[in-house]
Amino acid sequence: MTQRQLPFLAGAFLLAATGMAHAHASLETDTASSESSFKVVVQIPHGCDGKPTTEVQVKLPEGFVFAKPQPKAGWELEVIKGDYQKTYDNHGKPVSAGPLEIRWKGGDLSDEYYDTFLISGRISGFDRQTTIAFPVTQLCGADGKVVWDQIPADGQSAHALEHPAPSLTVMPTNAGSAHHDHMAGMTGAAMAEMAAMPVGDGQAVTAGDLEISGGSVKAMLPGAKVGGGGFVVRNDGAEADRLISVESPAAGHVELHEMTMENDVMKMRKLDDGIAIPAGETVELTSGGLHLMFMDVAKPFAEGDAVPVTLTFEKAGKVVYVLPVGGVAGGGHKHH
């Protein structure tokens, strides 16, 4: 992280703090791989209209199996069990039933405080990218209640909902026969549009007052579906700009993420509002901070390859930049 990033990140943390009172119940980590162990950490940021939270109920979706909740001091724990919709393998043993809902009861979480509720389990049975929801109900005494169970429609952002359910994007463990080469699948119009944009092959490229340079992508292990990368953006203009989206023919979609250290725990969150590029400042996307996440990658990135990305800025418009792929354990940027 450069010193020039600090004012921007400090402003982001200030905005996060001022908006905490209106924050939604959410998951600490919102991406996982199928057929892997996973800890669901439900974040409860506030009470019910100022009243303290006395009970938290979490419904478990199909595909999150063998759940074990973490007890919390001062709370009574209730596990509601039932039948799964299908049978899952648990170390060679077929299992068709288990926990379907977890309830922490009898607590007293003040509206002024924040807390998390943890459930360990396994993600299983997904052969394509899928989003699963964990509806949460907060009870605040006898007459206070908030239900976080709304699921966005296709193309709709969860931020547009008043009470979105905490959700998790599950990535398949392997590509399977359904995947194809995204570059080969581009339309002629899309390729023509890309050809008309300025392109940098790991070298500096400009878009308006912005200069993009120093990019790289980390090589991926065989079968991996998620990759990381980044670059440096310098704004030589008098006005701030914003990176609002990134696309690549090498991935199903590309997300903007930020990793931060909170209470000695590294946390990663998706930046739906993009990344601000202040006037006269340089912003670096690299491991341990702001970075790109390539999701649903059809062919794992190999050292020596190049990954084209189309960067869309709020004011500078679009520019194509080509990121060279470094080694699995090295490369220009060492990404998570």
UniProtKB/TrEMBL annotation:
Pfam families named in the record: DUF1775, PCuAC
Start and end residues of each YncI copper-binding domain: 24-170
Gene3D superfamilies on file: PCu(A)C copper chaperone, Uncharacterised protein YcnI-like PF07987, DUF1775
InterPro entries in the record: LpqE-like, Lxx211020-like, PCuAC_sf, UCP037139, YcnI-copper_dom, YcnI-like_sf
Domain of life: Bacteria
Keyword Signal (UniProt): yes
Signal peptide feature range: 1-23
Keywords associated with the record: Signal
PANTHER family reported for this sequence: BLR7088 PROTEIN, COPPER CHAPERONE PCU(A)C
Protein name, as recorded: YncI copper-binding domain-containing protein
Classification of source organism: Bacteria, Pseudomonadati, Pseudomonadota, Alphaproteobacteria, Hyphomicrobiales
